[in-house]
Specification:
Length: 129
């Protein structure tokens, strides 16, 4: 049992955090260059993925704005149609005559009150004379 403890104590002297190298093994000269290339590839992939996500979110925002503008355009067309209908109703001759007779108390002119003007003759023709 004591021999097992001695063996385990000797194994503890070598820390697992420090890698052990064989005296004849050297790091390869292109190892750092490969790591740098890999790092650059990973960074460029990350940047490109961010650009794709940004473009997609921009597309979604523009699509939402387009939908809102189409809805607003449809509402404005409906309001314009309603205003044109109201303008046609308000400018009808029968409505204007009804307001003139009922609200303002106007009556049709008598024949003696009408004057017909003719252009260039210099005289005035009266109806009923």
């Amino acid at each position: 049992m004591q021999q097992a403890r001695k063996l385990s104590n000797t194994n503890r002297l070598i820390s697992p955090a420090q890698p052990t190298r064989s005296p004849g093994v050297r790091p390869q000269p292109g190892h750092k260059l490969r790591k740098a290339k890999l790092f650059l590839i990973l960074v460029s992939c990350f940047v490109l993925s961010l650009a794709v996500v940004a473009q997609y979110s921009s597309l979604v925002i523009l699509n939402y704005r387009l939908s809102s503008a189409r809805t607003e355009l449809a509402e404005m067309k409906e309001a314009s149609r309603m205003l044109e209908l109201e303008a046609a109703q308000l400018s009808s001759v029968s409505r204007i005559e009804q307001i003139a007779r009922g609200d303002l108390g106007m009556v049709d002119p008598q024949v003696s009150q009408m004057i017909v003007l003719t252009a260039g003759l210099g005289e005035v023709n009266r109806l009923g004379e």
